[in-house]
Structures are given as structure tokens and as C-alpha cells.
Specification:
Helices cover 57% and strands 0% of the residues. By secondary structure, the chain is mainly α. The protein has a domain at 25-53.
Length: 53
């Protein structure tokens, strides 16, 4: 699997970390970011479909 490096504001990273860990929604920061990217791409696909693209 390819690796990606990015810069992110500390506030966003902390917000993500609040949802990571035992008994929380994500098992890791990477899992949270992957899930967010998939959701964003699904939303963009829906928008494209509505506009006939």
C-alpha cells in the first residue's frame, strides 16, 4: 500500500485523535483518515452523478 505524507493543522489532528483508540470509532489515525477520504470520494461521486458527469 502506498504511503502518503501531509501537513495538517494540529487542531484537526487532535480532533481526529479524540476519536481513535479502544472503544472509539477508529483503531488508528490512519484508519480515520482513510475512512474520511473514502467518504469524501463517495460524496463527490454522488455530486458528479447528479450533474451528469
Amino acid at each position: 500500500m502506498p504511503k502518503v505524507s501531509l501537513d495538517m493543522p494540529a487542531e484537526i489532528l487532535q480532533d481526529i485523535r479524540n476519536h481513535v483508540g479502544d472503544d472509539k470509532k477508529f483503531v488508528s489515525v490512519a484508519d480515520a483518515i482513510r475512512t474520511a477520504c473514502r467518504k469524501l470520494l463517495d460524496q463527490l461521486d454522488e455530486i458528479d452523478n447528479r450533474h451528469g458527469r
